[in-house]
Design a protein that fits this description.
By secondary structure, this protein is of the alpha+beta class. The protein has three domains: about 15-110, 2-Layer Sandwich (Uridine Diphospho-n-acetylenolpyruvylglucosamine Reductase, domain 2), CATH 3.30.43; about 115-225, Uridine Diphospho-n-acetylenolpyruvylglucosamine Reductase, domain 3 (2-Layer Sandwich), CATH 3.30.465.10; about 230-400, Vanillyl-alcohol Oxidase, Chain A, domain 3 (3-Layer(aba) Sandwich), CATH 3.40.462. It is about 30% helix and about 20% strand. It is built from 16 helices and 18 strands. Helix 1 runs antiparallel to helix 4 (about 70-80).
Length: about 450
């Protein structure tokens, strides 16, 4: 293991020398310096926030590297450190908070070609950082298993999900990423002689959801569980309150659902036409174990709704995932460009005080997710100004609604711990610079 206390030399960035070294390491196909490639590598999904979009462009890569193995990721990091060049790690670039934007230029380290799945064992799968969540799920399924959770953007990479995500499909049962999803990681610290550093259990946890600011995830081992027979479940209601009335009961179904989402007719009218999500009706979509379909049907009918369809196959369940968590804002923005913004919210008041919640922002529309303990979701509103967005936070607190501010790019999960770790693992401050700071705006409540 390399000495994580090594001090990187404080030298002026030398991109030209780094490019020369990386071409020797990776070959010409493994390095890009043309403007089109640099621009493509310098954007992510933060366009979903009109607040962040108003501050773009936040940075442009000087160079892009495409290592094809975990070991090459380490070689690239070491070379960048020796040449004093900032390093911004990147998976598929689907993050919504500017995590993948190189705010100080330098090197974008694109991990998407390091995608080998190394082992599928009893209760675990090991893969390089660029392996997609879909690929992991397929490999696990072939072994009669499934991953515990995956993000709504299922084409995201495992490294990107662990570095920038929080939860997703499967979180009803398993919680968020910090609840034991990752068994072990091979990470790379920003030191001149960088190599893979293996961490397990509690030692791995501080590297999760810190945007690669204290170490870049190059390889991961995550938990698997026995494969279940899932179905895509589609229901609709005359009124959104009918769906809300059973959302907490859906979370308690047995076997536990993988996902349950519900929305006002506003979303159904913004989505591509699908008879299972009829226009002008509130919709509820769920990924259910086949054994719970009858109980779910009874819940829907007891609330005055109707089951529109029950579908088999990965395509059906993936479709439902792509309309979950933050994804409804993307569909709303496609249908109504320049109109909507969102804030992530949670708490029983989402159900109990829905009218007051909708009044917080003009045109308010709650997207809700069933979750054991308390429902979560996002409130979408018609965007007027950055000040309007922040002014709503106080009102959310008054209603007893927790929130997370998605309109900033700072590490906001235990930033002090991450900063303390980065003092050892990134002494020159080269890992994703600009992201590990205390936000100038309120990042969220802890209700």
């Amino acid at each position: 293991m390399n000495d994580t206390t090594s001090i990187a030399p404080a030298i002026a960035p030398d991109v030209a020398a780094l490019e020369e070294e990386l071409r020797a390491l990776l070959g010409d196909r493994g390095v890009a310096s043309d403007l089109a490639a640099r621009e493509k590598a310098s954007i992510d999904g933060s366009h979903l926030s009109p607040v962040i979009s108003s501050k773009l462009p936040l940075g442009l890569a000087d160079l892009v590297a495409f290592p094809s193995t975990a070991e090459e990721i380490a070689l690239v990091v070491g070379a960048a450190v020796r040449h004093g060049v900032p390093i911004t790690p990147r998976g598929k670039g689907t993050g919504n908070y500017g995590q993948g934007i190189p705010m100080q230029g330098g090197l974008v380290l694109d991990t998407s070609r390091a995608r080998t799945i190394l082992e599928v064992g009893d209760g675990f799968i090991t893969a390089e950082a660029g392996a997609t969540m879909v690929a992991l799920e397929q490999a696990a399924n072939k072994a009669g298993q499934q991953i515990l959770m995956y993000p709504s953007t299922a084409q995201s990479t495992i490294g990107g999900f662990l570095s920038g995500g929080s939860g997703g499909t499967g979180s009803i049962k398993h919680g968020m990423l910090h609840t034991g999803f990752a068994l072990a990681l091979d990470v790379v610290h920003a030191v001149p002689d960088a190599e893979l550093v293996h961490v397990e259990g509690e030692e791995a946890e501080p590297y999760i959801h810190n945007y690669g600011t204290a170490g870049i995830i190059a390889r991961a081992t995550v938990k698997l569980e026995p494969l279940q027979e899932w179905r895509g479940f589609f229901a609709s209601f005359d009124d959104f309150r009918q769906a809300l009335s059973v959302i907490r009961e859906f979370a308690e179904l047995e076997p536990t659902p993988r996902l349950v989402s519900a929305d006002l007719p506003t979303l159904a009218n913004a989505l591509p036409t699908d008879p299972a999500i009829p226009a002008d009706r509130a919709s509820l979509r769920a990924i259910l174990d086949i054994a719970s379909i009858d109980d779910a049907t009874a819940l829907v009918e007891s609330a005055g709704g109707r089951v529109e369809d029950v579908r088999d196959g990965a395509q059906a369940t993936m479709k439902i995932s792509m309309i979950s968590y933050n994804h409804p804002i993307e569909w709303l923005q496609k249908a109504y460009p320049g109109t909507y913004f969102h804030v992530e919210v949670w708490g029983d008041a989402l159900v109990d005080r829905i009218d007051e919640l909708h009044d917080v922002y003009p045109g308010g529309m709650l997207h809700i997710e069933a979750q054991r303990g308390r429902p979560i979701g996002m409130i979408a509103g018609v965007y007027e100004s950055e000040e309007q967005v922040y002014a709503g936070f106080e009102r959310l607190n008054e209603l007893g609604i927790g929130y997370h501010n998605p309109h900033q790019w700072f590490v906001d999960y235990q930033p002090e711990r991450t900063a303390e770790l980065a003092e050892r693992t990134d002494p020159a401050g080269l890992l994703n610079p600009g992201k590990l700071e205390r936000a100038a705006v309120d990042t969220g409540s802890q209700l």
